[in-house]
Amino acid sequence: MFITRKHLSRRTFLRAAGASIGLPLLDAMVPARGWGQDAAPVAPTRLCYVYVPNGMVMADWTPAAQGKDFQFTPILRPLEKFREHTLVLSHLMCHNANALGDGPGDHARAAASFLTGTHARESGSDIFAGVSADQVAAQAIGSQTRFPSLELGLEDTRVVGLCDGKYSCAYTSSLSWRAATTPLPPLTNPRHVFERLFGNVDTHVDRATALRRARYRQSILDGAAQEARGLSSNLGPADRRRIDEYLESIREVEHGLERMEGNRAATDPGIERPSGTPADYAEHSRLMYRLQALALQADLTRVITMMVGRESSIRAYDQIGIPDSHHQLSHHRNDPAALAKLTKIQTYHLGFFAEFIAQLQGMKDGDATLLDRSMIVYGAGISDSNRHIHENLPILVLGKGNGKLKTGRHIDYQCDIPVTNLHLALLDRLGVRPEGLGDSTGVLDI
Amino acid sequence: VSRPAAFVLSGFVLAALAAEGVGQEPVSKRERDWPAFQEIVLPFLAKHCFECHTDKKSGDVRLDQFQDDPSLARGWATLDRVQIMLRKQAMPPQKRPQPGTDALKPVLTWLEKFSERMEREARLDRVTMRRLNRTEYNNTVRDLLGVDFRPGDDFPADVPAHGFDNIGSVLSVSPVLVEKYLTAAEKVARTALFGSAATMPERFSHQPFCVADAFSKNTTVKFDYDETGMSLPSALHVTQFFSVAGEYHLRAVMRGWRPVGSNPVELAFWIDGKKVHACGIAVPTVRIEGRGPGELNGLWAECRLPVTAGEHWLSVTVERMYEGLPAAYKGPKPAPDRPLPEPKPAPERTEGSKPAPNTTERTIRATDSFFPMYLDVVGPYQQVKGPDPASVRKVFTDGRERADARSIVADLARRAYRRPLSDREIERLVKLVAAVQKDGDSFEEGLCLAIQQMLISPHFLFRVEKNSPGLLSPHELATRLSYFLWSSMPDDELFRKAEEGTLRQPAVLEAQARRMLKDDKAFALVENFGGQWLKTRALESHIPDRSKFGEFTDYTRMSMKRETELFFEHILRDDRSIVDFLDADYTFLNQRLAEFYKIPGIKGHEFRKVDLKGTPYGGVWTQASVLTVSSYANRTSPVLRGKWILETLLNAPPPPPPPNVPTLDEQALGKELSLKQILDQHRSTATCAACHARLDPLGFALEHFDAIGQWREQDGKFSIETSGSLPDGRTFKGHDDLRALMKADVKSFTEGLVEKMLIYALGRGLEPSDRKSVRTIADQVACGGYRFSSLVLGIVQSEAFQRPGKTREGD
């Protein structure tokens, strides 16, 4: 239903949250950064991926000129203020999003291969892709923060049936894959994200009770893990895989709880607890970006993925005068009117992203801004949506990667290179160097 | 290009099977298949099938994938399909050279034997252990602990497969989910034992975005209308979930104008269709606080009411809309002619200000141009403290010593794990209680921790079935039964039958199933099976183009959903024939939907059974809910509707379209060409024709129903052409003929429904090996006069339902 709830006053929230809410994380508190870790000598680098569905109007996306003096095209224009922080990359591809002998399902394969570089198995129930770039990062550096990674989305994933051809909806609604058979469903409700990040338990009880309950939680997680191990010896292979997933998840949650224990100094999230998913798309979008910025700022996580819509999204953008289904519209047959509408939607999407970038630029992180510390990929696994082209994808990278990215340029690689090479290049800047990722052929030169 | 990932996985599975000693026989037998296949089948396929079935041009059937024994095992399902097509002589196509019977026979024999053996082997595998999905989690904690705040709604969405969201193989587990389980366990256990945590009052503002035509110019009155206002465009309808019981403050804010001199506007508040409060709002007669005479903008009415936890439907309506108007309107029960104050002289105009409207007080205004615009709900106040008595009864089962940890824990855990526990398991839980007490906390706190432990246990979260050949244990069978019919755990009686060991007796099982279908909890089958089978769940997120379909308000949406639910529930509760889904001369309507369907004489917002004789409607496929979800936002789609009918009613799902098909020319649509002309063009392409010849005519039969299911004579400027033919040559003139044709093919419909319900009941996709089960059940349904209960009983008594299962890794 359509609930737009007035927020509680901030004071009310603080009162309700009791003593665990402290002062805002002031820049002066920087030595405390690292969250109970030894003060790290180097400020951490953050990695984010923002994915947009249904391709891009490439004519309105790709700048004509290469190098430093490229022009901002109609879709990119909202980012013009951040020229110095923008890297436009042309001719990257998701080869494995192509059918390659399988049936229709370009949308499912595009989302599934964008961060994994793998060719998704054509199945409604036996899903199989690969580990995604963000999860490679999370598995390597995730233990340094409260949450190894965050997966977010702007579209409820409660959908009926197969989502694209014979492909499971898991492929179209998840960008992030923890293992080849374990997609990570995105959180789409801002309230859930807020509660996950800033906690919603133990705010009414005294400290001793809170500590005791935290200890109990650890103990029942142990108990559950023990039961699961006892169970797994009697199971068939598929069931055992499920129990393994469960055990791994328990381990990760235990780890997160330990981390929280080690560091009771809480942050002020700086916003009120959202009441749910706003009916208004713009408000929803802004809130989710805002929560990302806050999570990055408080160093609760360093790895985030967000899907602006599920791949092959049928959302209508009434609020900007486009009542058509996005997916239907994306098969534009090169009709100028349809293309104009698509460009409008895509520019609209980028507008919210630009606001996010502006926030990151406004957030001090030691002697630099959060934007300087970050690497934020914005893009899609489809370029021309009319024919489901997976070459020459629309890809941007924002942020300076802690001084390790040379931005302010448009690079055209001329011949298509797997987008996974870009992922490897960014992982490299995080100090993460896997042997390869999906169909990667090397580390992209950027 | 090969897919190494798939091979790695099948390798893993085979290795795992071998390691378990499950698949001793297959390996040696499979090795024998390839030579015979190569000799008997392959040449036939090469001659008759390879022309099309070697790449993706023709659907998804690829027949050049076989090179050795493993590939035969993997492609078993495909080969099984080949067998069916050959036997039905559906392939090769009529226009191609036909194989003679002599050539066909050995091929068929080989394929049949192969299928049969693969089927036997497949029995060794089983259903993937199913995690409770969100709905099942909610219902289970409700039935286990009497806690009804739907904690599962906060979990990440469950991925559907095979059309349903309870399929074991895709219900995966992630850290986010385990985090949620941990939080929910704590909240659920605390709520059950201590009542819901003190909650600060919060405000929820509802502003429905589809209030119909805001300011009408209508100055006339009606005598025959819905006096409750529930079904009028002015009504405000929203749903809100209340996680905590208590008192809530409701305030409705008005917008619009009412003729000056009218009686006070009668505003009514409703919860779940029951009137809970009524009050009047006086219509201003003079300008006051910047509000002109007759202006209602910003005026409000409020009330404070006790509300129970759970989801509620809140409505604010204007009652007796056309009564109490000034006599000049000649409406029913007019207002007494009261003297009005002299119009004040218009204030002098000052620089920059708008001229005050020089309204004379008796200006004729629209009669129904006002409505409640916002509803604010603030609460809880006077929160209900302490545990719900229902929860207390569930935790401390009657007659038990309140402090006997062992018996309380053992009983709870038996119900939570849905089986008897070993002493060691009970001991571990009891120790938790003791540990907490040792820390100086109360017995209840200790119990609370033990319950939390149960709620995050894999034995609670997963429906564990022992990996043993033979039949399910009585407890496993009871669990399957209750999650099938109730989407929840077994109740005491079902547990009792399992413990007595009598549940497997056909008479006992039948009696239990019948008893469960009568229980209120069986509505879960309507909501979860029905909503997904008919795809009407999509209605919640479907937003028709409002510029074209102003009729579609939130109330309409709710009413459509309700109609289909009531219709399904009626078939279930009254044990009607499932043929009613195809053709029924009744449905359930309220005034809103009756007006929508142009059926006269239905007053008020309550739903009731309505006779459909003489109307175009009849059967679930002509209900507005179905017609809406099988349409695009801005127009009907014969293709989507055809697909819906083929999948849902005729059990003949079309293959997905080939990659990169050209889409329709939306721009020309409705301007230069009709939808029919455009789709005719589409069908002229050979690659499209094969499927669209089946899809489109079915959809066109429904073209008189627009994209929200309302009857129309014309589609824009084009006339509507509904006649067509089925691929087998039978012709029809419109939806009435089509209905007759579908009824004649009741066998296909029944088999389709059996398949869908079996998938839902088992939580897995069907295999070729299940076909026999499906046919047997369908036959039983036919013998049982197509009664709904015969369908449910057929499934419950089938081997597939009573055995651990037979699914394979891979497709």
Distance between the termini of chain B: 19 Å
Beta-strand content of chain A? 5-15%
Uncertain runs of chain B: 1-30, 358-362, 806-811
Order of helices and strands of chain A: HEEHHEHEEHHHHEEEHHEEHEEEH
Largest sheet of chain A: 7 strands, mixed
Mean pLDDT of chain B: 84
Q: Helicity of chain B, in percent?
A: 40-55%
Number of helices of chain B: 28
Which secondary-structure class do the elements of chain A indicate? alpha/beta
Structural class of chain B: alpha+beta
Proportion in β-strands of chain B = 5-15%
Largest protein interface, residues of each chain = A-B, 105 and 105 residues
Task: Describe the structure in brief.
The complex is a heterodimer of chains A (446) and B (811). Chain A is α/β, with parallel strands linked by helices and 446 residues long. Helices cover 35% and strands 13% of the residues of chain A.
